[in-house]
Amino acid sequence: xxxxxxxxxxxxxxxxxxxxxxxxxxxxxxxxxxxxxxxxxxxxxxxxxxxxxxxxxxxxxxxxxxxxxxxxxxxxxxxxxxxxxxxxxxxxxxxxxxxxxxxxxxxxxxxxxxxxxxxxxxxxxxxxxxxxxxxxxxxxxxxxxxxxxxxxxxxxxxxxxxxxxxxxxxxxxxxxxxxxxxxxxxxxxxxxxxxxxxxxxxxxxxxxxxxxxxxxxxxxxxxxxxxxxxxxxxxxxxxxxxxxxxxxxxxxxxxxxxxxxxxxxxxxxxxxxxxxxxxxxxxxxxxxxxxxxxxxxxxxxxxxxxxxxxxxxxxxxxxxxxxxxxxxxxxxxxxxxxxxxxxxxxxxxxxxxxxxxxxxxxxxxxxxxxxxxxxxxxxxxxxxxxxxxxxxxxxxxxxxxxxx
Length: 404
Prior knowledge:
Blueprint lengths: L15 E4 L5 H11 L3 E6 L22 H4 L3 E5 L5 H11 L4 E4 L5 H4 L4 H7 L4 E6 L14 H7 L20 H24 L4 E5 H6 L5 H8 L16 E5 L5 E5 L3 H10 L14 H6 L1 H12 L4 H10 L4 E3 L3 H6 L1 H5 L3 E6 L3 E6 L23 H8 L4 H9 L4
Parallel strand pairs: 1-2, 1-4, 2-3, 4-5, 5-6
Antiparallel strand pairs: 7-8, 8-9, 10-11
Helix pairs in contact: 1-7, 6-7
């Protein structure tokens, strides 16, 4: 709507987002929009704020180290959405907003008279981004739906882990993040449509559907031939060789040489070029049938070289490979450094802290990390006085009433 005076230089500069979600699925979408320059005004309950302020590994004084990342590039205002006066302030904020982002249980916004139809009357150009476990419609819509449930019902959990154990979860909240990413794609698609027509719309991103959309040909394989994907540990069935292999110095290196031409190069690196002509390994299908014995053969070889030597060989022969990285390895990797994949941000309490940079990279208008997550209500005056024009007396009344 062009009212945002923030000059971030990002491609979404000039757009305003009212973020009303909590925890991860909604706020990660807000993070993505903010990373590329949108002004994100995060609405939090007075006194306690978003529970993400307390999640994740903590320092000794109890402050979350997740909050500075998920709330980066955002402004924080406090507002009690359960009170009529708080709901009225939302309507005021919506008048000049481009996006309203929420991830409450479906029906909650309608209960507060803040559903899409009502808000669209106030601002027909508004794009309302709604992230939930099961979507805004259907028999499960009003069920509680955390990311773990979406991962389970979307098919991801069943195929993760060792086949000898129950399904594993990923080490991150991937269901929430996927739903947020799809929500961001939907929001930008709706923005493009609005540029042509002037009309806003609702974006309905369900966690289970976001996960489902990542499941490749899982549905089609079952529909056509009755095949059900199972847990396979560190491999994909019939895709070989593509696995994690041990080295002489007890490190682990992932090697992905499943394409025919790449496998031939691997056999040369192993000084076993005859393997590429062996009927057991000469084609993609054949390697899939003999996956375990091929992995054993490669592991036997990788144990004879150090990881450094193995990386050099893989690079020399053009074979995709990579170490199994943790944070320490990321922080010293020269490629991460050269591309500034990790940035340093000033935090008012922690000082300089490191976090992942914005992705993807744009050549003309790259996204930036401009600030770490804000203090609760840090921007109340800027938004309520500067944006809505409320005077000190009115702000004091709202504060006394527990509205802000």
